[in-house]
Amino acid sequence: MTGSLEGLKVxxxxxxxxxxxxxxxxxxxxxxxxxxxxxxxxxxxRQNKPQLNDQSLYFLxxxxxxxxxxxxxxxxxxxxxxxxxxxxxxxxxxxFRPGTMEKMGCGWETLRQLNPRLIMVRISGxxxxxxxxxxxxxxxxxxxxxxxMSISGQPDGPPTMAGTFMVDYASALYATIGTLAALNxxxxxxxxxxxEASLLESAxxxxxxxxxxxxxxxxxxxxxxxxxxxxxxxxxxxxxxxRWIYLSAGTDALxxxxxDAMGRQDLIEDDRFNNxxxxxxxxxxxxxxxxxxxxxxxxxxxxxxxxxxGVPCSAVATIDEVLQNPQLKARNQxxxxxxxxxGTYTTHGVTVSLSDTPGSIRRAPPVLGxxxxxxxxxxxxxxxxxxxxx
Length: 390
Fold this sequence. Notes:
disordered C terminus, 16 helices, three-stranded antiparallel sheet, single chain, elongated
């Protein structure tokens, strides 16, 4: 059984998360992804801590299933060699600051002449044009500028960023979707196209209904902590043993199940709680009732009772507990990879499941430049064009 993108040649010029993650999705699905890195130094995140035997766990997390080719981007020979590689590629992924590729003689107009089938994927902070296009951007900047930070955290606390780089991940997934869409068009027309994703636009796409609420209703979405904006009771609650659980019983189907399990059928007679809109209007009151009940029992008992009642509920897991999760193990979502220098390490599995052409992990993340000669030979780059790659 082969991967769904087998035979697809991808050049990954990107750094950090959004670009490498996009390239890794394609690699997991079977594409031949060549990570083109700065000669001698490689991608900056190779230096990130923590490390296993001098290999950065951050780098290892976004670069499996790739081969590494070293290139001197700064010299003309290196840039000429890059164009040679691009002329033979199906997909090129980059997330430099807008204008950088153009300075290397690798702008879209140049490359589409060189390779009309090329799909060029550009991931940036704010897009390739517009008044902010030249500003630097990281995930947290996009969370701040998009308003995500203003709606995250406790109502009486500061604006809070997510605990992970979710905008980078979302941008990677949008770029992957765009790449697959462009490949589908290319099957029909034989022509590639330019695909763009930006951190700010990806972040703004995750604002739920905040944009129409503000624009049409003049209502500003605010921070609500761990409450649900749209139903109640939903929150994280502390159990008697000090552990936290998250419980969601806000719909009219779920609420009766919760109060049955609590032995509080009287609540359904209370006008404040007997329907969806009433509970939302009296969120503070119903939340306090549930918090008292959860606080009287150990966390495992609450979760067991909710499972029995069919109410969505989970203990708030530590990462250590995630590693023991039987569901993730059953679905092959925690895998061990053997790396030539880092040794064996555990990471997330292939996330998308395809029945006929499943993704797979075929290669550990590459050591810098390990595949330079192999790729140049396979891709048919002439000896005279290998200057600066030894």
